[in-house]
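Regression check, DQA case 141:
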Amino acid sequence: MKILILNGPNLNLLGKREPEVYGSQTFDDYFAKLQSKFKDVQLEYYQSNIEGEIIEKLQEFGFSYDGIVLNAAAYTHTSVGIGDAVKAIKTPVVEVHISNTHKREEFRHVSYISPAAKGVILGFGLQSYELAIMSFLEVSA
Ligand code: DQA
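Current build output:
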């Protein structure tokens, strides 16, 4: 199982950025934990502050990987291009957000990703990523 975690703008500042909203852990530290938790999953991680680079990564991984966990950050609320890329690829995309965007400003209630996503997980802090990875794994009841 191959899963890409793709983070958008300003998420490289996790740990320093508005810790009251996004917590105090860096993504690199969290990613190391994810790798040890999901040993059987080949996890790839990429972050960019540039819209076109996020689209390029979706195109690059979106025909061979089993899943993409996408936090497009602020581009979620503005980017027709990222929404179109999610529609264009074959790999299912789960949209995640650290914060509950619906509890926040109104402009964060709009997502150009959701209509094309397999599902959306938001508001669980960094645990949102873990829940998204789990959604790709087969669970037996
Ligand atoms: C975010 C929510 C977005 O509204 C915001 O622009 C971000 C992070 C989240 O993970 O909660 O940068 O995607």
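Comparison notes: Helices lie at 19-22, 27-37, 51-61, 80-88, 127-136. The chain has five helices and five strands. No diff flagged against the previous build.
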